[in-house]
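This follows on from our talk about sequence and fold. Can you supply me with one protein entry, sequence and fold together? Could you add the entry underneath, on a fresh line?
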Amino acid sequence: MDYRNSISSMKRSTFSEALELSIDVFDKRKITIGKLVPVGDWILYDKDKIELIRSWRQRTMRMFLTQFESTYEKTFGYLKNLSIAQEGRIFFLIYDTDNRFIGHMGIADVDGKTGELDNLMRGVEGGDPRLVYFAEIALLDWCFKNLGITESDVRVLTYNWLVISLHEEVGYVHKEKIPLNKKTKDGVTFHDVVGDSESNVKYACVKMLLKREVFYEANSWISSKA
């Protein structure tokens, strides 16, 4: 199946339909510890979930390359115009076994060969302490088996060492360290990719890469067969 069709088929119009397509999250004992619920048009009518996503983004804003005042309207626009509308992007809500919405993550810029892990967030405590780690594994396993991609990348600011360590444990390796130039305009802070001499901040952006074969070697308890 073409990656566009695989992604589109997950973006349902009702929450109940999305639940039926959710991806189970297992630990190494093959015990279910949560699920990933794909986001479709249904979320645009769920103000409580949108507000949670907004508040979590605001609380952790310094961990993102683009920083701004998070509002309900901006979060709604992101979900509608990017997560849902773009054919190469899909967003998932993370639930624990008590059906509590505890975080989210997604995959972006999918082109049939690669895809970028995107918007990883644990918003609240709940469920298994390693739920986010195993949720990342479940998402990547689904991507490698359903989207035809052979590798994934992710970008993280160097001071976000906890997330860097999480990705390393999953199997990502450092590809390059990218110098940044920080600038603010109209209340929005951007980080432009520049050469070493143009950088104006002490931190940088780490780009990490994960190849399909490395992922299944690092997580040999998962079958690589679709």
User: Anything to note?
Assistant: Residues 131-146 form the longest helix (16 residues). The CA atoms of residues 88 and 110 lie 5 Å apart.
